[in-house]
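Hi R.,

As promised, here are both runs. First protein below:
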Amino acid sequence: FSEKVWAWWHTLQPPWQSITSNGRPAEVIAYGKSWETLNRPGRNRWLGLLTCLLWWKWDIGNLDQASRQELELEWLSAVKDMRKMFEGLLHHTQSIQCT
């Protein structure tokens, strides 16, 4: 399931966001100017991402302790990346509205 979430998240990344060799978004150091790919809320798009994170976390909770650690770190990485990108999108959107 996590691979499908990452793949979907990858399709929403702005062109300036680089992807690492393992298919994960690189850590954001500075935001770019183009946000069109992520700034398309559509029908349940962002809600769908949050729902996937919730399902992913629930799935981790069903595993034994030994299996959880690595998957929890990966889940936290996804949460961190999505949060950072949505914060950047919010800042970008607000700056456009103020000009």
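And here is the second one, sequence first, then its structure tokens:
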Amino acid sequence: MNDATTEARRRLETVLKGVDGVRYYDDPAGAADPPATVLSLPALERESGCPQWTTATFSVWVLHALDERAVERLPELATRVADALDELPEAVVTRATAMPFRAGTQELPSYEIEVEVAL
């Protein structure tokens, strides 16, 4: 990653680590103890004729335990995380999609939140 992308990731990590009651993990392939967030590597885009990346789109996975409360609590948890990410002036939350997330040996209920960051 270039310096701008690395800095964008660092800022997102700082926000995610600050969400009260939610653990942050930086390894999408590792085990996670929900409630938790996991930050992916970004998809990178550049405008025509521009020699550098101009936008990074990160996936933030919001994980909940596999229990009877997941359907009720996961949307609220995803909203809290999205609201925290929206506080970054250079970041825009574009969508949240419900889907399972494989954490270690288990599949957890989750939302994938897409966050675009201008570089």
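A quick note on the second one: The radius of gyration is 14 Å. Let me know what you think.

Best,
J.
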